Amino acid sequence: MPRPKGSKNKPKTVKSTVDFAAQITEKQAAKKAATVEIASITANIDALKADLKTKKAELKTIDKEIARIEAKKVKAETKAAEAAKKIEAEAVLKKLLASGMTADEILAKLK
Questions:
Q1: 106 touches 97 (CB < 8 A)
Q2: Using an 8 Å Cβ cutoff, are 106 and 96 in contact?
Q3: Which of 12, 58, 68, 80 sits in a 20 to 30 Å window from 106, CA-based?
């Protein structure tokens, strides 16, 4: 087996000292900056949630108003259709009476 080269009693070199205090300070500053940023984002999210809640409530009221207006529109359209039918029926009745039909003949025709 070959012998290892170099002396075993050779003094070991000490690595350069690391400035742990500077690293700790740097990391604490980064942590503080991240904490402030997180707090800012959280506040922004809370504000947006509140805004979203009000917008949803507003949308809900608008939907209710639309439904109410549509119901009014349908009611008005049916009322107008009934009025138009009534006017048309009266016109036909006047026409038949003018042509010389009696009321009994008109009723028999309608049945």
A1: yes
A2: yes
A3: 80
